[in-house]
Structures are given as structure tokens and as C-alpha cells.
Amino acid sequence: MKIISWNVNGIRAVHKKGFFLPFIQKYQPDILCLQETKAEQNQSEVDLPDYEEYWNSATKKGYSGTAIFTKTKSLSIILNFPENILKKYKLSDKYGDPNTEGRVVAAEFKNFFVVSVYTPNAKDDLSRIPLRYKNWDPAFLEYMKSLEKRGKPVIFCGDLNVAHTPEDLARPKENEGMKGYTKEEREGVDNIIKAGFADTFRIFTKGNGHYSWWSHFANARERNVGWRIDYIFVSERLKNKVKKAKILPQVLGSDHCPVLLEI
Questions:
Q1: Total domain count for the chain?
Q2: Quick one: which of 46, 176, 199, 213 has the most CB atoms within 10 Å?
Q3: Rounded-to-integer distance, Cα 204 and Cα 53, Å
Q4: Domain membership of residue 97 as a residue range
Q5: Three-state SS for 170?
Q6: What is the tens place of the pLDDT at every residue in 94-128?
């Protein structure tokens, strides 16, 4: 089974540029998880007859949003966080309520769950760090563990808006304490791994130079001055079933590139 995750930074834009359908045709994912779709399903001109499409769009038009496209129909779909987790963690701040921004969609299959997630970023002035550190990150991890408790392992993927270690960005010293590379954000990934989820890319590939997002400035992508902020995690019990995990920097159309898992 091939699972691909991609922050498309606007599915209509990447489709109009002519990149989306050739990507699907070349890689033929069994399950495709998208982030930053920036559209509702009825606004998308993409027609994929081989796939079931499950969308979670933001209340705000043209913003955020996630989706799961799958060749196998799901048993159930869950949008956003469950009520019990929302009651426990206050997700609203001065910027709004991330639970209305279409940031999480989960699909249940016979033997596992797949989740597409688009984590809120901390903002340039770090004003959203409290939301990330105290609310979003622990809420999301608790949600993933609650899915495991339903008797099936979990594969979750997406744009987590954080580089986990110094090897996950080209310039760690210069970016220490900046958005996407604070101790608080990195601790969120530490906690995911401590909870038993495996960062699939790092099962196979060590070292730096492997990135999934590049700034639009100063030819960062051409120079590979980037960040690895897009991940695919699997439950511990699936780790030995992972055959391949790769980043696909050759796929253009967004400021992010896709990440791939074969399991």
C-alpha cells in the first residue's frame, strides 16, 4: 500500500498549474492525504474517478482545509476533534478556533486509521506558541492515542509546522527559537515519539539535506535551503511493516513537496 501526504497550498492552484493530475498518474497513491486544500469539494475541478474523496474544509473561504482521497472506501470518516477532547482542551485563541479550520480528517479502514492533519503555525512573533504547546499538540496526540484504543493502529501524516531536530532544517543555528523551531514545538514531536509513534522517514534516512518545504525567497528550493516539516507517523505495531519512506522533492506545484510511505 502506498500512502502519500502533500500540503498542496491550494488544490485549485496546483491543478491549474498542471501539476496535480500528472502527479497522481505517476505515483498512483492508494491513499492521498492533502493539507491546505483552500477549497470546498464543490469548488475543486479535480476529477479522480478512481478515488473516494473525503474533505474537511474551513468555515473561512479559501483557507486551510484537509482531505483524504482513497481508492478503498472508508468505513467511517471523522472530521475535527471529538467532543470529549474539545471539552478538555481550549483550542480558541485571539486568531480564532482551529477546530473550525478543517485541520483534521480521519478515515477508518478495516485494519487501521489514516489521519491527515494541518497543524497551526506559531506565527512569526510566536504568539500562537501557547495554543500549540498547551492545547493543540496535546489534544492531537490524545486523539491519536484514542483512535489506537479502538483496536486499530494509526497512520497520521501532514504538515506539522515544526522541524524536529537540527537535521530537519538547513540552518538550525540561525533559526533557533524561531517559528517552527522552538523548544515548545519540537517537544510536541518528542511527545509523539515517546507515545509510541514512529517517524517513518527516519527509519531509513539519517542526516540533513532532506526537506519538504522551502521559502519562496532567495531561490531557497533550488539551493535546497529548506525544512522537513511534513511527516508520516505510524503506530509502533506498524513499524516493522514499513517498506519505504521517502520525500519527493522533484514534485513541483507547491512550496511543499509530497512525502511517501509504502507499507
A1: 1
A2: 213
A3: 30
A4: 2-262
A5: coil
A6: 999 999 999 999 999 999 999 999 999 999 999 99
